[in-house]
C-alpha cells in the first residue's frame, strides 16, 4: 500500500510518486505540475517489447555530443536555443586530476536539451584546449596531455581562448581546483572579456584563496582564527619562529604544528611537523618542490573535530542570501597499533579523495545543537563578508571546552557555551566528484546531483543582465530545471522497470565496487522507464570456504536498500555505518529536524525564483534485509539485479545461482561461466583446446596459503621455477578479483616478503618492497586460501616520453623486441554471439610508478584506445578481436565482461591472463573508453542501459 508523504514546505500542489528504499511506491505532494519539454530521443533495441523504443533520460540530458567545436555561435539566447555552458577543467595544480573527475560529474548531471555543454581543458603550462565530451572520460591528466595533440583544438593564447568563449558560450563554469581556478586567475581572464561565469569574482578569490590573507581578513571581520606564522621563500627567520612557539606555549623540540602552502588548495602539501627544526625543514621542502613560495605554520588543534560546510546563495541578482546546508563532521579514525602520530593526524589529500577506513563522515555533525547553529551562522556570515558568490565550501574546527585553548577569542565570533568554532579554509570551487561533500550535503536537504548543479548555474546567470534579459530562454531553462527537480519524483508509467544495483561485498575490491555501483546507479536513474535502487551487500565470508559452505554462508548475508544520500560515501564500511546511524531513533529525529530547518530556509529564498518547483530527493530510511529476503523482494517487484559486486559471491557464481533459483534476472554471465572465470585454473583448462585457433594459456601452479606459511620457501621456490620453467614468476590469488595481490617475484627473498604479508594480513605492500621496482600493491583482505604461480611474461615497456626530439610533442617509446603487449578488452552481447570492443593498451609515463591516486581516482596511466598501428597492425588487431570473441563464446560469457590478455603484435595471437565477469565500472574505467570508440560511440548512460537490456533478453 502506498504511503503518503507531505513536504513540510508545501501545502498544495500536484501529486506524483517516488519509490521508497523497499521498492514500495510513495505518493508525494509538490508545488507545481510537471511539464516536460521534448527532446530528441535515443533509439535503442529494447527487449521489453522486441522493437526500438525511445529512451528519454528524465533529467533531459539526452546524448552527449562527441565533437570539438571551436567556431563561435552568433545566435542570441532565445527560445529554441539551449543555454550554452563552457565547462573548463584541468589547471596547473596537483589537484587537476580531481578537477577532471569533477568536470565529468558536472557534465553527466547538467547536459540536456535546454543546456548544452562545451568542454575545455587547461594544461599545467596554462595552454587552453577545446576537447570533446568523450575525451573528458579519459583517466588522468597524463592521459589528457598525451591525447591533446591529436584529439583537441589548441588555442594560441589565453586571449584567443577568451575570445572564443565570448563568441561560443553564454556562461562559463570553471571546475579548476587550486591555482588558476580558485586564486582569481581564470576569473580575471573572464572578467576582462566580459564573459559571465559561475562563482566568486577575481579580487574576492585572491583574498579567500590565500590562506594567510584569508586568516588576516577573518580576524579583521571578528572571527576567531588559528595562531599562525608565515614563512617566505627567502626569509626563514628562526628567531622569530622561536618567539612564536614560545608565545603559543609550544615546545620548541616537540611542539606539534600544521605546515601548509598558502596557495595550493585545501589538501596539497599539508603535513604535520614536530618542533622548530622539523617545521623549518618541511616548510623548505614545500618551497623547494615548487608547491608554493609562501608557507603557513599553524597551531595543531589538538582535541578538535574538523567539519566542512557547503554554502549556497539563493538570493536574487546582487542580493546575496547565503544558506548553509547541513555541515559534515570529518572523523579521523585509527586502526591497529604503532606510531600513528602523523599519519592519522590530519585530513589530507589521500584521506579526502581515496577510499580509506581512516576517515568517516557524519552529516549532520554529532555536535551540540548550538555548535551546529554557530557553524551555519558563521559560514553564512563569512560568505557574505568576503563577497563570495553562488556557492562555496568552508572548512573549520570545533574545539570543545576541554580542548586546546586559543588566545584573544573574547568578543570574537565562534565563542559558544559548548566550545569554540574556528574557520580555517575557504574553497571557492568545491570538489564535485560523484560522492563529494557538495552532493552529500545537498542530497540531505532534498537536492539531487542535477538539481543542485543547475540551481548554482541558474543563480549565476541571474547576476548577468545579458543573460537575465532573455525571458524566452529562461522559460526553456525553467522547463529543464523542472524536469531535473522532478528527476526522481515524476509519476511512473505502467511499463516502469525496477532495477536493484547491488554493490559492496567483503572482498578487497569492495571499495572499487562501491565506486562502480554508484556510477551505474547515477547513470541509470536518469531514465524515465527505470526505477533504480542502490543496495549494499554487507557481512563477510572467507574466500577459502568450500562451495557448499559459501552457499550456506551467502544466506546469512545482509543487504541494505539505500536512500539517495547514504550511497554517497567513500567506503562500504562508511555506508554501513551511515545506515546503522540513520535508523537510530534519536539520531534520525535530529537529522529530520535539521533537514526541515534547512529546507525551510532554502525555500525562503528559492520560492522567489520562478523556475523553482520543489526538492527532488525524499527523506527516506535505509531498509535491512537478509540476502534471501532481498532476493524475494526483487522477485515480488519484478526487478532486474545489476551486479556490481567485484569478487566473492558477486563473481564466483554464488549470487547468480541464488538469483537463478528465484527466477530473478541479472546482468552479466550465468552461474557456471562466472564460477569458471573466477577460478583462474579452471579458465585455463576451459580454453586449453584452442591453441590451434591462436588462443594460448599460461601454465599455472596452485599452492595453498598454509603451504607457503609452513613450508620451506627455498624448496618451494626451486620447485616452482623448475615446473614453470621460468626464473621470474607472477603470483596472484586463485579466486579473487583482478586488482589485488598480484606481484612479480624474482627470487626466494621476494617470495618470503609476499608470504610474510599474507601471514601478517598486511593490507598493502609498500612500493619497491620486492627486488624489482614496483608501485604499492594492494593485498587481499582476508588473505586468500590459495594462490596461483605462473611464468611472468616479459613484454617491452611502453612509455610516454614527456618530450620528443623537437622538444614539443609527446611520443610513444617502444622497442618491440618481445612481440607481445598486454591489453584489456571489453566484450558484450548475447551468449554465443559476444562482440569484442576495441582493445586498450595501458602505459605509464617515463620514470613513473602508478600511484594509489591513479588506481582509484582516475584509472591507471595512459590508455591507448585503439592501440596505435605503430605497435600493432590493423590486421593483427582484427585477429586479436576475433580470438577474444572465441574466448568469450567458449567460456559462455554473456552480457558484459572484461578479458585481460597478452597479444602478439604481428600475428594477433592471444595469451589469456584472466577473465573478469564483473569488471570495474567506475566513471573513468578503460571500458568506457572502449565503448566510446565504437561507431557510433556508446556513452556511459546508454552503455549501462544496454547491459540491462541484455539481462532482460536472457530472462525472456
Automatic annotation (TrEMBL):
InterPro entries: ATP-grasp, ATP_grasp_subdomain_1, D-Ala_lig_Van_CS, Dala_Dala_lig_C, Dala_Dala_lig_N, PreATP-grasp_dom_sf. GO terms for biological process: cell wall organization; regulation of cell shape. One of its GO terms (molecular function) is metal ion binding. Pfam families: Dala_Dala_lig_C, Dala_Dala_lig_N. PROSITE patterns: ATP_GRASP, DALA_DALA_LIGASE_1, DALA_DALA_LIGASE_2. Residues 216-458, 687-952 form the ATP-grasp domain. Belongs to the D-alanine--D-alanine ligase family. This is ATP-grasp domain-containing protein. The lineage of its organism: Eukaryota, Viridiplantae, Streptophyta, Embryophyta, Tracheophyta.
Amino acid at each position: 500500500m502506498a504511503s503518503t508523504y507531505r513536504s513540510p514546505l508545501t501545502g498544495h500542489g500536484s501529486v506524483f510518486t517516488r519509490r521508497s528504499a523497499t521498492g514500495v511506491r510513495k505518493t508525494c505532494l509538490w508545488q507545481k505540475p510537471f511539464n516536460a519539454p521534448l527532446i530528441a530521443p535515443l533509439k535503442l533495441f529494447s527487449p521489453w517489447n522486441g522493437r526500438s523504443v525511445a529512451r528519454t533520460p528524465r533529467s533531459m540530458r539526452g546524448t552527449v555530443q562527441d565533437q570539438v567545436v571551436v567556431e563561435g555561435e552568433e545566435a542570441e539566447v532565445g527560445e529554441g536555443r539551449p543555454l550554452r555552458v563552457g565547462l573548463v577543467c584541468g589547471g596547473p595544480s596537483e589537484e587537476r586530476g580531481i578537477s577532471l573527475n569533477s568536470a565529468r560529474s558536472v557534465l553527466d548531471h547538467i547536459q540536456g536539451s535546454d543546456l548544452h555543454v562545451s568542454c575545455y581543458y587547461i594544461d599545467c603550462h596554462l595552454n587552453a584546449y577545446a576537447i570533446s565530451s568523450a575525451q573528458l572520460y579519459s583517466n588522468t591528466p597524463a592521459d589528457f596531455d598525451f591525447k591533446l595533440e591529436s584529439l583537441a583544438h589548441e588555442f594560441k593564447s589565453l586571449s584567443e581562448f577568451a575570445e572564443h568563449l565570448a563568441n561560443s558560450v553564454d556562461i562559463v563554469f570553471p571546475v579548476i581546483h587550486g591555482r588558476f581556478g580558485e586564486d582569481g586567475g581564470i576569473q580575471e581572464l573572464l572578467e576582462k572579456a566580459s564573459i559571465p561565469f559561475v562563482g566568486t569574482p577575481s579580487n574576492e578569490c585572491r583574498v579567500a584563496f590565500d590562506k594567510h590573507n584569508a586568516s588576516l581578513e577573518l580576524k579583521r571581520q571578528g572571527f576567531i582564527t588559528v595562531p599562525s606564522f608565515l614563512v617566505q621563500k627567502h626569509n626563514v627567520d628562526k628567531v622569530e619562529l622561536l618567539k612564536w612557539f614560545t608565545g603559543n606555549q609550544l615546545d620548541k623540540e616537540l611542539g606539534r604544528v600544521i605546515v601548509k602552502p598558502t596557495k595550493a588548495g585545501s589538501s596539497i602539501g599539508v603535513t604535520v611537523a614536530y618542533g622548530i627544526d622539523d617545521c623549518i625543514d618541511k616548510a623548505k621542502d614545500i618551497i623547494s618542490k615548487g608547491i608554493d613560495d609562501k608557507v603557513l605554520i599553524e597551531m595543531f588543534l589538538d582535541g578538535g573535530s574538523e567539519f566542512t560546510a557547503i554554502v549556497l546563495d539563493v538570493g536574487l541578482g546582487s542580493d546575496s542570501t547565503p544558506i548553509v546546508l547541513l555541515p559534515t563532521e570529518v572523523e579521523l579514525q585509527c586502526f591497529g597499533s604503532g606510531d600513528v602520530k602523523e599519519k592519522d593526524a590530519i585530513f589530507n589529500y589521500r584521506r579526502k579523495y581515496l577510499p580509506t577506513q581512516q576517515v568517516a563522515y557524519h552529516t549532520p555533525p554529532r555536535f551540540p545543537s548550538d555548535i551546529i547553529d554557530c557553524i551555519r551562522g558563521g559560514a553564512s556570515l563569512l560568505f557574505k563578508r568576503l563577497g563570495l558568490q553562488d556557492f562555496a565550501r568552508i572548512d573549520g574546527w570545533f574545539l570543545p571546552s576541554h580542548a586546546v585553548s586559543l588566545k584573544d577569542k573574547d568578543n570574537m565570533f565562534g565563542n559558544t557555551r559548548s566550545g569554540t568554532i574556528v574557520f580555517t579554509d575557504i574553497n571557492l570551487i568545491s570538489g564535485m566528484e560523484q560522492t563529494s561533500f557538495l552532493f552529500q550535503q545537498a542530497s540531505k536537504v532534498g537536492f539531487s546531483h542535477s538539481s543542485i548543479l543547475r540551481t548554482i548555474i541558474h543563480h549565476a546567470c541571474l547576476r548577468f543582465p545579458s543573460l537575465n534579459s532573455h525571458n524566452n530562454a529562461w522559460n526553456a531553462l525553467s522547463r529543464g530545471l523542472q524536469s531535473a527537480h522532478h528527476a526522481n519524483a515524476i509519476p511512473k508509467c505502467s511499463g516502469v522497470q525496477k532495477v536493484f544495483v547491488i554493490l559492496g561485498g567483503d572482498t578487497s575490491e569492495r571499495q572499487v565496487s562501491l565506486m562502480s555501483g554508484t556510477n551505474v546507479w547515477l547513470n541509470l536513474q536518469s531514465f524515465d522507464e527505470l526505477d533504480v535502487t542502490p543496495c549494499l551487500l554487507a557481512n563477510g565470508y572467507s574466500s577459502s570456504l568450500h562451495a557448499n559452505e559459501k552457499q550456506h554462508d551467502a544466506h546469512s548475508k545482509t543487504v541494505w536498500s539505500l536512500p539517495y544520500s547514504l550511497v554517497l560515501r567513500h567506503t562500504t564500511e562508511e555506508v554501513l555505518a551511515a545506515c546503522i546511524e540513520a535508523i537510530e531513533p534519536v539520531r534520525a529525529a535530529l537529522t529530520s529536524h535539521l533537514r526541515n530547518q534547512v529546507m525551510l530556509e532554502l525555500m525562503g529564498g528559492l520560492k522567489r525564483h520562478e523556475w523553482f518547483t520543489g526538492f527532488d530527493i525524499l527523506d527516506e530510511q535505509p531498509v535491512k534485509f537478509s540476502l534471501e529476503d532481498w532476493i524475494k523482494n526483487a522477485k515480488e517487484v519484478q526487478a532486474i539485479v545489476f551486479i556490481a559486486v567485484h569478487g566473492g559471491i558477486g563473481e564466483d557464481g554464488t549470487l547468480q545461482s541464488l538469483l537463478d533459483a528465484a527466477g530473478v534476472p541479472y546482468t552479466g554471465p550465468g552461474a557456471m561461466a562466472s564460477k569458471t572465470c573466477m577460478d583462474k585454473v579452471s579458465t585455463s583448462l576451459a580454453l586449453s583446446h584452442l591453441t590451434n585457433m591462436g588462443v594460448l594459456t599460461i601454465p599455472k601452479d596452485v599452492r595453498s596459503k598454509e603451504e607457503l606459511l609452513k613450508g620451506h620457501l627455498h624448496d618451494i621456490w626451486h620447485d616452482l621455477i623448475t615446473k614453470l620453467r621460468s626464473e621470474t614468476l607472477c603470483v596472484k590469488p586463485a579466486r579473487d578479483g583482478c586488482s589485488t595481490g598480484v606481484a612479480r617475484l624474482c627470487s626466494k627473498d621476494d617470495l618470503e616478503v609476499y608470504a610474510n604479508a599474507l601471514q601478517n594480513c598486511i593490507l598493502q605492500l609498500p612500493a619497491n618492497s620486492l627486488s624489482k621496482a614496483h608501485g604499492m600493491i594492494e593485498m587481499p583482505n582476508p588473505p586468500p586460501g590459495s594462490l596461483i604461480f605462473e611464468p611472468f611474461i616479459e613484454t617491452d615497456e611502453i612509455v610516454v616520453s614527456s618530450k620528443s626530439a623537437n622538444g614539443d610533442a609527446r611520443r610513444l617509446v617502444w622497442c618491440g623486441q618481445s612481440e607481445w603487449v598486454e591489453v584489456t578488452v571489453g566484450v558484450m552481447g548475447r551468449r554465443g554471439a559476444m562482440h569484442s570492443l576495441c582493445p586498450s593498451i595501458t602505459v605509464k609515463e617515463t620514470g613513473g610508478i602508478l600511484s594509489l591516486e591513479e588506481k582509484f581516482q582516475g584509472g591507471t596511466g595512459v590508455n591507448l584506445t585503439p592501440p596505435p598501428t605503430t605497435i600493432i597492425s590493423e590486421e593483427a588487431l582484427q585477429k586479436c578481436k576475433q580470438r577474444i570473441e572465441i574466448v568469450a563464446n567458449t567460456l559462455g560469457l554473456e552480457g558484459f565482461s572484461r578479458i585481460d590478455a597478452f597479444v602478439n603484435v604481428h600475428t594477433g595471437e592471444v595469451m589469456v591472463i584472466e577473465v573478469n565477469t564483473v569488471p570495474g565500472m567506475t566513471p573513468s574505467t578503460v571500458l568506457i573508453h572502449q565503448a566510446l570508440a565504437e561507431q557510433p560511440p556508446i556513452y556511459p548512460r546508454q552503455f549501462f542501459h544496454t547491459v540491462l537490456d541484455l539481462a532482460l533478453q536472457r530472462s525472456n
